[in-house]
Design a protein that fits this description.
heterodimer, A: abc type-2 transporter like fold, 2 domains, B: alpha/beta, Rossmann fold
Chain lengths: 417, 244
């Protein structure tokens, strides 16, 4: 019990020293907030608006063909009628110009009806839709493939019905089985009718089903800027404290504590608790400002965000202790703190969201606690995931904290030992 | 306090090599020696922060091996370095170390004020230690060692680098503490200091005690105690070669 009281008193002492140091307070709180304001402002325009997906279509057939009728029916003529999430269908009248636009990277891609489209369908032969897309634009390619698949499927379904209808017309004597022109005309009319019917209601040809998974405001940069810089500065602020722990070792205050009935575990616990409380103060201020000023949305699970933040603080405090036990001099501790913070923060997705990195870099980033923390925050606050999605990040942060803590306990020395 | 056949090595270096001595209750005992003689290592072992490789330490009837906690509760340590928090005020330093020594909040505050007064620093109680002079910091360093009213005080070169006024203040306080029954183990490089306040001194070199007696008796071995200084004795015993 006495040792626990000493843990608390050592933590309070460290907090008092911290509060007395205005420069430190500036670098712990004000400086990070300045970064957040700056990067939040810079990134505000990026992806801040919900740009509607545009899908381009073209045909190699001449006017009056079946594809002309289909495109006319599908083309978005009044964007205001589209629902949120519906794509805008754009008809590129010049096939060659559309190809050139893709070549020049001015257009992500388009779907083209082939020159024999009407002929093939009328005669019951198969034909292919052409998807012409920029290979590097995965999203556009996927959307165009989806649309092409939907058109093919719809045409296939309609074809069966139309064939049956034509058979009935022939059987009823309305059309002669030898009247090819009459049959072709009937097929075209019915096919066009099906596509027109799809758009007359105002519904998009492709429909999207959206399940609401949280109150996430899309692309509010604060949702990744605030957690990113929180992770960076909580870690940095803790790491830099390693310098003062080394100073305590060098000026023999730790030795003095040991000589006055304070156990080494209590000294470690006190330093750790002080660092953790400082970190908690930081996250309370960061989240408070984030929510009140930047309208940060904690998504479906604020509890997960809070737990991740606390684990980040605990891990950082343990790292600080470990660093202090590994560094022999104050200068070494300070340099190591700065270097590790500046290397791990960008690698771990604190400066830019981790999900923008190529997969191989995301895999490498997982060696840093920062990456686990930002990944957890992003899942909750950017992608609207639930608590369970952040659990791997929580376990990883806990594991890092235990690893750093064990090394600190193992390596802890005073000036006398 | 009894130290018996203490040994301590750091790798191949034998810092303390068979040191034995005892200090009587209420005595001021001087531990003298050139740099690297083993004085600080001896004090660290006696103050429980460093475990000896072998040997026995008994303080106030408690054995170091089995009752280190009891020993810590009756000793005070004033290390050679300024082991204090410069970003805190004098009173905050005192109270903090008082609480660490096991005092409750009220007693820590009362003792802190009393010890600051003893050191002539009561008016600077709320001043930040970083802004104090070297002498004031030394006095605070000593005042902290007095928190918890220790029975045995270890003073490791408490007067290094300070002005004569502060040094004199510290001497007078040590003598005053002795009058109140405190036992003191004192290390210093200032021979006239040891001669003035220590009842007995031990001279260490190479990790061993090479002489131990009253200053008067040690000086008598070289000639008339009125003409011989303790420094003469020291140089005679430890030689004139430089120690780093």
């Amino acid at each position: 019990m006495k040792q626990l009281e000493r843990v608390w008193l050592i933590a309070l002492k460290d907090l008092k020293i911290f509060m007395n140091d205005r420069t430190a307070a500036f670098f712990f709180i004000i400086f990070p907030l300045m970064f957040i304001v700056l990067f939040n402002t810079v990134m505000k325009g990026i992806g801040g608006e919900d740009t509607r997906l545009e899908l381009h279509l073209a045909t190699q057939e001449a006017a009056g063909s079946l594809s002309y009728h289909i495109l006319g029916a599908m083309e978005t003529t009044d964007e205001s009628l589209l629902k949120p999430g519906d794509p805008k269908i754009v008809w590129d009248k010049d096939y060659d110009a559309a190809r050139q636009a893709v070549e020049n990277k001015k257009l992500a891609g388009f779907i083209a009806f082939p020159a024999d489209f009407t002929q093939a369908l009328s005669s019951g032969n198969s034909t292919s839709l052409e998807v012409y897309a920029d290979a590097g634009n995965i999203n556009a390619r996927a959307a165009l493939n989806g649309l092409a698949g939907a058109i093919s499927s719809q045409i296939g379904t309609n074809e069966v019905i139309i064939k049956a209808s034509v058979a009935l017309l022939i059987e009823g004597g309305v059309i002669s089985p030898t009247d090819s022109a009459g049959i072709n005309k009937a097929v075209q009319q019915m096919m066009t009718g099906y596509f027109s019917g799809a758009t007359n209601t105002g519904a998009s040809y492709i429909t999207f089903k959206t399940d609401k998974v949280g109150e996430v405001v899309a692309m509010n940069p604060s949702n990744y800027v605030v957690p990113g810089y929180l992770v960076m500065f909580v870690f940095f602020a803790s790491a830099i404290m390693a310098e003062s722990i080394v100073r305590e070792r060098k000026n023999h205050t730790l030795e003095r504590l040991l000589a006055s009935s304070v156990r080494r575990e209590a000294i470690l616990g006190g330093i750790f608790t002080g660092a953790a409380i400082r970190g908690l103060i930081q996250i309370v201020i960061f989240w408070g400002v984030g929510i009140l000023v930047f309208h940060v949305d904690m998504g479906l699970s604020p509890a997960a965000v809070i737990i991740l933040s606390i684990l980040m603080v605990i891990m950082s405090a343990a790292f600080s202790l470990m660093l202090a036990t590994l560094a022999r001099t104050q200068r070494a501790a300070g340099s190591l703190a700065v270097i590790t913070s500046l290397v791990l923060a960008p690698l771990g997705g604190c400066w830019w969201p981790l999900f923008l990195y190529p997969q191989w870099l995301q895999n490498i980033a997982k060696i840093t606690p920062h990456a686990w923390a930002t990944d957890g925050f992003n899942k909750i606050m950017v992608f609207g995931a639930d608590f369970g999605a952040a659990v791997p990040s929580m376990i990883a942060l806990l594991a890092f904290a235990l690893l750093f803590g064990l090394i600190a306990v193992w390596r802890f020395r005073t000036s006398a030992t | 306090m009894i130290a018996k056949d203490l040994h301590k090595s750091f790798g191949d270096f034998k810092a303390v090599n068979g040191v034995s001595f005892s200090i009587n209750k209420g005595e001021i005992f001087g531990l003298l020696g050139p740099n690297g003689a083993g004085k600080t290592t001896t004090i660290r072992m006696l103050s429980t922060v460093l475990a000896p490789d072998s040997g026995q330490i008994i303080i106030g009837g408690h054995s170091m091996k089995s009752e280190a906690e009891a020993i810590r509760s009756i000793i005070g340590v004033c290390p050679q370095d300024l082991a204090l928090y410069e970003d805190l005020s004098a009173i905050d330093n005192m109270i903090f170390f008082g609480r660490m020594a096991g005092l409750n909040s009220q007693d820590a505050r009362t003792q802190a004020m009393a010890n600051l007064k003893l050191m002539g620093l009561e008016e600077r109680a709320k001043g930040k230690v970083a802004k104090f002079s070297g002498g004031m910091k030394r006095r605070i360093n000593l005042a902290i060692a007095l928190m918890g009213n220790p029975q045995l005080l270890f003073l490791d070169e408490p007067t290094v680098g300070i002005d004569p006024q502060s040094r004199n203040n510290i001497y007078e306080n040590i003598l005053g503490l002795q009058k109140k029954g405190m036992t003191v183990l004192y290390t210093t490089h200032y021979m006239e200091e040891a001669d003035r306040i220590c009842q007995r001194v031990a001279i260490m070199d190479g990790g061993k005690i090479i002489a131990m007696d009253t200053p008067y008796q040690l000086k008598s071995q070289l000639g008339s105690p009125d003409k011989v200084t303790l420094e003469d004795v020291f140089l005679k015993l430890t030689g004139r070669s430089l120690r780093d």
